[in-house]
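Query structure, 331 tokens:
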């Protein structure tokens, strides 16, 4: 097996985030389920955007956030995602390449515009996401670059991208390329509602194509149709080599053959916005894993990165994560 050129290649929804504060009664009035992600059409996206307060716009998407965190830690990353040749597509490409992530996916010359996610953050720091997928729904097997995938130590798949059938085919193609090259495949379940929509397909993907699984408590319980976290955790241990399961303030649990590691949440002075917490946990974990660090240290790195991201508005690091890790004596 040749030496990997990249630590991780992320495959996901290339989205520009629009983030604004919102009151609880606004969510109730608009029938939005707090703390979840809902897919919306172009008309609903425009209507919600008009009702939102002052907003911050930044390139996002779950796997994009993870790759940004990896780059901030000093890792080498690449990204595969679909954008249109429009203004938001240019913004996304500039942002992700400017932080040092390779993004060679060509922009589509026709079809839906670049995706955007309208994120409403309530006073308790919870984020409610309303996503217009736009060009993302066009991503399929033809967009999977075999050279990039085979050159990455880990291929990281974003569960949010799983809705379109052609994206599911793309995931399986990427996993096959990665495994043929002797590499590993990681998957983030991303959202419990996403899991509910495609539970059988997700189970097939996890059971036959994934080495490393990231999920929070709600997502892993949804995957195995139980309210008991311990039962869900026991079930997943038979399907993947490593499962990193996050439990918000209760930290995370990492399962590997013959071992279980409980990781405390890193302290944070005040939770401002939980957007991207799971994405950045994956950044730290994958950074540690690609450096062959012990799994508990990988989990601690994930917790540190997640704590940084929830301490401010937005899903991209505000400080150099490599410096934060060095200050804490990790890595």
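Result returned for the query:
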């Amino acid at each position: 097996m040749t030496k990997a050129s990249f630590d991780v290649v992320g495959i996901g929804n290339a989205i520009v985030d629009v983030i604004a504060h919102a009151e609880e009664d606004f969510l109730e009035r608009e029938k939005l389920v707090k703390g979840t992600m809902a897919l919306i059409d172009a008309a609903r996206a425009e209507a919600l955007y008009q009702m939102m307060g002052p907003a911050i716009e930044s390139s996002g998407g779950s796997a994009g956030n993870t790759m940004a965190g990896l780059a901030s830690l000093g890792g080498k990353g690449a990204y595969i995602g679909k954008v249109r040749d429009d203004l938001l597509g240019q913004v996304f490409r500039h942002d992700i390449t400017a932080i040092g992530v390779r993004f060679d996916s060509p922009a589509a010359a026709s079809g839906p515009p670049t995706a955007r996610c309208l994120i409403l953050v309530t006073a308790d720091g919870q984020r409610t996401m309303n996503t217009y997928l736009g060009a993302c729904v066009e991503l399929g097997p033809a967009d999977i670059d075999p050279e990039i995938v085979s050159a990455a130590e880990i291929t990281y798949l974003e569960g949010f991208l799983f809705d379109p059938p052609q994206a599911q085919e793309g995931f399986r193609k990427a996993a096959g390329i990665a495994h043929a090259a002797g590499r590993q495949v990681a998957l983030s379940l991303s959202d419990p509602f996403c899991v509910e929509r495609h539970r059988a397909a997700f189970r097939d993907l996890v059971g036959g194509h994934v080495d490393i699984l990231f999920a929070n408590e709600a997502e892993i319980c949804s995957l195995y149709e139980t309210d008991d976290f311990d039962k869900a955790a026991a079930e997943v241990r038979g399907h993947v080599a490593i499962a990193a399961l996050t439990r918000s303030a209760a930290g995370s649990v990492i399962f590997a053959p013959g071992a279980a590691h409980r990781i405390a949440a890193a302290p944070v002075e005040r939770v401002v916005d939980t957007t991207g917490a799971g994405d950045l946990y994956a950044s730290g974990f994958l950074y540690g894993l690609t450096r062959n660090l012990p799994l508990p240290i990988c989990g601690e790195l994930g917790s540190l990165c997640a704590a940084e991201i929830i301490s401010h508005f937005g899903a991209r690091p505000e400080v150099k994560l490599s410096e934060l890790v060095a200050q804490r004596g990790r890595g």
